[in-house]
Amino acid sequence: MSVGRRSHDGNTNVSGSDTDDETKLPLTQFYPYIRCTVCCGFFIDATTITECLHTFCKSCIVKHFFSSNRCPTCSIVVHETQPLYNIRPDRQLQDIVYKMVPFLEELEREKMCNFYKDRGLAVPKPVAVSPQGPIVLKKRKDGFPRAVFTIPPELNIYLLLEFVGAENGISDFKPLERPYICVSGEATIRHVELFIRRKMELSPKCQVDLVCGDHLLDHHQSLKDIKKFVGNEALQ
What is the pLDDT of residues 51-64, one digit of tens each? Predict the structure, then answer.
């Protein structure tokens, strides 16, 4: 990832390396990807709406949801009653912003410390994220380690996706490479639809309906609720 550097005229350029013969791009060219459309500032605690994948500062989107349940960018209904359920932190994007914008992380940390000190509160320590992955190495009897894939407990719903065609037929789509997916029961049918659209590279004009057994599923239904409602019919 490119790193922002401050030039003598005060502008920040982005370059692939420290050599002068490399092409330098102004930071303003990346503004659409690293700035919040609500406050027009650089992302702080970048948070993404899972329904439409638009990203904002955490404080901006939380305040916005006090008065609206729609995305500020595309106006999609995030959740009928609890839109905060459908937002997730985007730590990778936030790391990119901090690397591209000099001194931003230090300034935010200083502001946060002053906020807590002015109110006589203890400054919270950064949460260390342990790099735990789904691959666990176990030692075999012959002395060589073997890899064992373990599924995280939150991924508790197993789906088999089958394409059953369309009334008028479509030809410009990409077949699913793997029909089996493992997903959280908190996910909604809307999440599954977005996944299918991306994987099959479907046009926005294509209507995607999801059916389980004889039931046409609603976008706002969660998978765990469908599992309880449909029951054994889900296996047919």
Answer: 899 999 999 999 99
Q: In Å, what is the CA distance from 169 to each residue of 11, 165, 198, 207, 209?
A: 53, 6, 19, 12, 14
Show the domain range for 76.
Answer: 27-118
Tokens 């955490």 correspond to what residue?
58
Under-70 pLDDT residues of the chain: 1-22, 126-156, 165-172, 231-236
Give this prediction's pTM.
Answer: 0.47
Domain count, the chain: 2
- Alpha-carbon distance values, 158 to 42, 82, 227, 233 (Å): 38, 25, 10, 14
Contacts of 29 (CB under 8 A, 6+ apart): 14
pLDDT digits (tens, 9 = 90+) for 175-202: 777 777 777 778 888 888 888 888 888 7
CA–CA separation, 215 and 212 (whole Å): 5
Last residue of a domain, one of 102, 118, 134: 118
User: Would you state the structure tokens that stand for residue 2, as one six-digit string?
Assistant: 């490119």
Could you tell me if residue 196 is inside a domain? yes
- 159 and 81 fall within a common domain: no
Q: Looking at the domain assignment, is residue 213 inside a domain?
A: yes
Closest alpha carbon to 44 in 113, 84, 98, 88: 98
- The answer to whether position 1 is within a domain reads no
